[in-house]
Amino acid sequence: MDPWLIWLIAAGVLGVVEIFTLTAALGILGVAALATAGTAALGLPLPLQFVVFTAVATVSLLFVRPLVVRHVLAPPTERFGIDALVGQAARTVSEVTALDGRVRIGGEEWTARSYDETQTIPPGTAVDVMKISGATAFVYPRE
C-alpha cells in the first residue's frame, strides 16, 4: 500500500474520532496526517514524512489548539431563557411582599417576591428584576 494512502486513512480515522471526542487535538493530528499524505504523494522519503507530521502537529498543537479551546470555553455572549429576564424592567400588578405578589415582565405575568424581605411594593410600581428562582421573580423598586 502506498504511504500517502496510509496517511490519508490515518487522517480520516483521526477526523472521525475527533467528531466523537471534541478535544480538538485529534482533529489537529488529522490535519497533520493529511498534510503528510500530500508530502508522501510528492515522493518524500518516509523519515521526512515523519518530520513533516511532527512539525505540523507540533505547530498546530502549540498555536491552534489554545485558540480553539479558548473559543469553546468562552462564556455565551447572549443570555437566553430566564437568565435574559434578570435586569429587565417590570411593573407590579399586585402588591409585592417577601411572601407574595405579581409582576408583569415583557407582557408576561410572573409571581414575584420582594428582593428586600422588609419591603412592600405597591401595585403599579416600576421595578427591576434582580433574580429568577423557578417561576418567581425577585424584584426591587426602581429609583
Q: Would you kindly provide a written description of the structure presented here, covering whatever features stand out?
A:
The protein is an alpha+beta fold and 143 residues long. It folds into two domains: 3-73, no CATH class; 81-141, Beta Barrel (OB fold (Dihydrolipoamide Acetyltransferase, E2P)). 45% of the residues lie in helices and 20% in strands. The protein is built from three helices and five strands; from the N terminus they run αααβββββ. The chain has helices at residues 3-21, 25-41, 46-73, and strands spanning 89-92, 102-105, 108-114, 126-133, 136-141. Strands 1-2-3-5-4 form a five-stranded mixed barrel. Helix 1 (3-21) packs antiparallel against helix 2 and helix 2 packs antiparallel against helix 3. The chain starts with a helix and ends with a strand. The model has no long low-confidence stretch (mean pLDDT 91).
Shape: rod-shaped
**Number of beta strands:** 5
Task: Please give the share of residues in helix.
Answer: 40-55%
**Biggest sheet layout:** 5 strands, mixed, barrel
Distance between the termini: 77 Å
Strand-and-helix sequence, N→C?
Answer: HHHEEEEE
Return residue spans where pLDDT drops below 50 for at least 5 consecutive residues. none
Percent of residues in β-strands: 15-25%
Task: Give, in spatial order, the strands making up the sheet with the most strands.
Answer: 1-2-3-5-4
- Gyration radius (Cα, Å) is 29 Å
What is the overall pLDDT average?
Answer: 91
